[in-house]
Amino acid sequence: MKKLSARRRHPLAALVVLLLALACTGGLYAVFAPADKAQADETAQSLTIEEGKKLYSVGCASCHGTGGQGTSDGPSLVGVGAAAVDFQVGTGRMPAATSQGPQVPQKKNIYSQAEIDQLAAFISSLGAGPSVPTEEQYGPEGADIAKGGELFRTNCAQCHNFTGKGGALTHGKYAPTLEGVSPKHIYEAMQTGPQNMPSFPDTTLSEKNKKDIIAYLDAVNSEKTESPGGLELGGLGPVSEGLFGWIFGLGGLIAVAVWVAARTAKAKKS
């Protein structure tokens, strides 16, 4: 007993007890704290989904079905992902008007970003799909504008024009202008392929490729950018410029020819 009592009164005994107490406290915190945080995050996500479901029931279910399964008036939303919701609702294309034409046009947005996030969370809960991109993914940092121009002309210019001014398609459809469209929405459009546009997943255009294209569009549509060739006729391309040449150029030549013929005929009469 004397030996045990002596060990307890050892100068290092208090330090050992303190270290054991700290180790136990740290272990208990490591076990219970992450669970509490995860539970809080799960609760917050559940509330977000529930609020999104309420918004969906009011503004979307009549066309897309109560469970997002789709109806004769609207496609299924299962698996479209948060990016599709953020694009379609954020650009005002959804909810669509009751009388739809060949293509749903962009219009003023009626939802706040917080409400769009709630709708996106609910739709994502129905099935996995592309997520909303971060600013790091679509921001200009590290982008190659020249490479973006090459990629855009190869994959996008056939519909959107080489400067993104837009253009006509078949049966009343059209490729909208990309001027003034936010980089996030351009990225989401490439991810999801809205309406008549094909999708460009990372297997087709990598995240870096998308960033380069967005940087190119920002450069060519910037207010500070001036056309080195002077008047560009709206940047609509060779069709509009050729039409302008035929109508005004050829029309001017015909007018001159008629005027010369009239003067010649008048001179002969004199």
Automatic annotation (TrEMBL):
<feature type="domain" description="Cytochrome c">
    <location>
        <begin position="47"/>
        <end position="127"/>
    </location>
</feature>
<dbReference type="Pfam" id="PF13442">
    <property type="entry name" value="Cytochrome_CBB3"/>
</dbReference>
<keyword id="KW-0679">Respiratory chain</keyword>
<keyword id="KW-1003">Cell membrane</keyword>
<keyword id="KW-0812">Transmembrane</keyword>
<protein>
    <recommendedName>
        <fullName>Cytochrome bc1 complex cytochrome c subunit</fullName>
        <ecNumber>7.1.1.8</ecNumber>
    </recommendedName>
</protein>
<keyword id="KW-1278">Translocase</keyword>
<keyword id="KW-0677">Repeat</keyword>
<keyword id="KW-1133">Transmembrane helix</keyword>
<dbReference type="Pfam" id="PF00034">
    <property type="entry name" value="Cytochrom_C"/>
</dbReference>
<feature type="transmembrane region" description="Helical">
    <location>
        <begin position="243"/>
        <end position="262"/>
    </location>
</feature>
<comment type="subunit">
    <text>The cytochrome bc1 complex is composed of a cytochrome b (QcrB), the Rieske iron-sulfur protein (QcrA) and a diheme cytochrome c (QcrC) subunit.</text>
</comment>
<dbReference type="InterPro" id="IPR009152">
    <property type="entry name" value="bc1_cytC-su"/>
</dbReference>
<keyword id="KW-0479">Metal-binding</keyword>
<dbReference type="InterPro" id="IPR050597">
    <property type="entry name" value="Cytochrome_c_Oxidase_Subunit"/>
</dbReference>
<keyword id="KW-0813">Transport</keyword>
<keyword id="KW-0732">Signal</keyword>
<feature type="domain" description="Cytochrome c">
    <location>
        <begin position="143"/>
        <end position="221"/>
    </location>
</feature>
<dbReference type="InterPro" id="IPR036909">
    <property type="entry name" value="Cyt_c-like_dom_sf"/>
</dbReference>
<keyword id="KW-0408">Iron</keyword>
<keyword id="KW-0349">Heme</keyword>
<feature type="signal peptide">
    <location>
        <begin position="1"/>
        <end position="30"/>
    </location>
</feature>
<keyword id="KW-0249">Electron transport</keyword>
<keyword id="KW-0472">Membrane</keyword>
<dbReference type="InterPro" id="IPR009056">
    <property type="entry name" value="Cyt_c-like_dom"/>
</dbReference>
